[in-house]
Amino acid sequence: MIRVLVSLFCLVSFSSNNWVLAAPSAPVEEPQLIYEEDPSSLVSNIEVVIRTGSAEEPVGKQGLTNIFSELMLRGTKKYGRQKFQSTLERLGATLSVSVFHDQIVFSGEVIKENTFEFMKLLEEALFQPKFDEKELNSLKVEILNQISHIKNSNNRLGGLAIRQELFKGTPIEKPAIGTLSSVRKLQMPDILRAYNNVFFKQNMLFAVASPFKESQWKTALKEMWKKFPDGTPKTRRIFEPKVPETPTLIVVHKPKTSTGVLTFAQKGITAQDSERYALGIGNFSFGGEPLVSRLFRTIRGELGWTYAINSSYGAMGNLSYQPGIYTIVSTPSVEFTTKTLFKTLSSWQDYVRNGLRKDELSLAQESSVNSYPFEFESAQKRLGQRVYSELYGVPVLTQEEYEKTLDKVGNKELKKALKDRHTEKGWLITLVADKDVIAAQLAEEQKGMPHESQLKISKVINPSDLIQ
């Protein structure tokens, strides 16, 4: 069974490109392995992490990393696509690939007794992909259809509009899946060049949770790993987010939309940010936790203006070295769209200025501490924590360390973190809705306000333009 996952809604913005030089790589004699043994497990879980992602793609060839990664699971030099897939099924195994801005992750799961036979098949996929021209053309058709379908999803359109505005001229202006024009341009020489540029020893990290001994894995992985060439790690590309100083509204025009998507975007944080625990606790009670958060209780529960509302530091996925994006996303009924917009802005202003009430802060701390053990309840989850720690240089806290860390967060610390990392008015706002309806609502909501102080539509985008 083959399953391919691609992040389509990864938001980030930039003002300038910052290049962080990778440390000179010393010769390595062993593959890098993070291992969790679980003698009771009936399956083995294997991840191969390639420390390069879609941020390395040439401008105009977005989707290249996704294409070559997926193509690697569509046949090898030994097995055609059908034979490869049927062999996976026979082994009781799954193999998938996920593409992010800074990594490619191949994830496999196989029943215990077929573990090392599966590893031979995985080696075939990673080291001997066929890169068949017919499969490439077929895959491009499938992906082009996926991209075309995006314009029917209001949730995705809002995120794409933010990317297009804030990433312009960079490889991550478009989503990892690419666009209609960029995917159509991709040819086999692009595929081969991209593969050869990232598949080398120093760029690979192995993570395994299994019932077998670690020594067995070291032997098996070294045999695979030593077949890859040596290489030099690339520089880390970081795009520094920069949002407008005042609320800036962009409308993705969809006539007769009954329920649009309203997205606020502001600079977020990195994995190593010293304020991340305070901001995480604050966000839990402000907008992050359904049912109990302030935004949900007021805008959804009391006012009934929106079907859903949520805030998050995870618009880019897991926090990384790349400064993330903080988002507030809601799905208001059309008649309450601008009311939701202005209420969100005023709620945010109050939060930044005053932080949380004591009961809100206590709830966030207690809930977070009580749920923390569930992040380590299985060997696979513990493995994920250790891999994240290795990739981004953050510690894995014990339960006691985590509780002590959160106990240090009071409202004073939260307000300082909000002041340090956020702004009251600096928002890029996208709204998927009928532009004429929104223009009329804005005029009505701001009646009597000085014209120069009113929030206006700064740009109108057609859905089809976001996927071209």
Description:
- It is a single chain.
- With 468 residues, the protein is of the alpha/beta class.
- The chain has two domains: 18-238, Metalloenzyme, LuxS/M16 peptidase-like (Cytochrome Bc1 Complex, Chain A, domain 1, 2-Layer Sandwich), CATH 3.30.830; 243-466, Metalloenzyme, LuxS/M16 peptidase-like (Cytochrome Bc1 Complex, Chain A, domain 1).
- It has 16 helices and 14 strands.
- Strand 5 and strand 6 form a beta hairpin.
- The longest helix is centred in the first third of the chain and has 18 residues, at 133-150.
- The radius of gyration is 24 Å and the shape is globular.
- It starts with a strand and ends in a 7-residue tail after the last strand.
- Residues 1-25 have low confidence and may be disordered.
